Amino acid sequence: MQTVELEIPDVIWRSHRENIGFVIDEVKKGLVIWEYLNGRLTIGECGEILKTGYRGFLELLWNTGIPADALNEDELAHQISLLRKFTD
């Protein structure tokens, strides 16, 4: 993984200077979500990058109000197979 330097607005620095790790985590989540929404990452890849797993990334989308209806065919099949485990 690469490291980049990022300038943040003073208002964000003042609000979070005691917990800059939070800002770093949120920026990383934002970039991963952006790449997912633009079709460059799958849900599984996003879960791996963020270390939340497939389900954890889906929950992140749900909790932020982002619909997960952009599932590709493989991801949809995976979701259906998970649901079938509970109904079988």
What does this structure look like?
The mean pLDDT is 86. Helix 2 packs antiparallel against helix 3 (43-50) and helix 3 crosses helix 4 (53-63). This protein is an all-alpha fold. The chain has one domain (19-87). It contains 5 helices and no strands.
Instruction: Enumerate how many helices there are, as a single number.
Output: 5
Largest sheet: none
Give helix % range. 55-70%
Quaternary structure of the protein: single chain
The domain count comes to 1
Determine the N-to-C terminus distance.
40 Å
List the helices and strands and how they pair.
Layout: H1 10-16, H2 20-37, H3 43-50, H4 53-63, H5 73-87
The gist of it:
The protein is 67% helix and 0% strand. With 88 residues, the chain is mainly α.
Give me some keywords for this one.
single chain, elongated
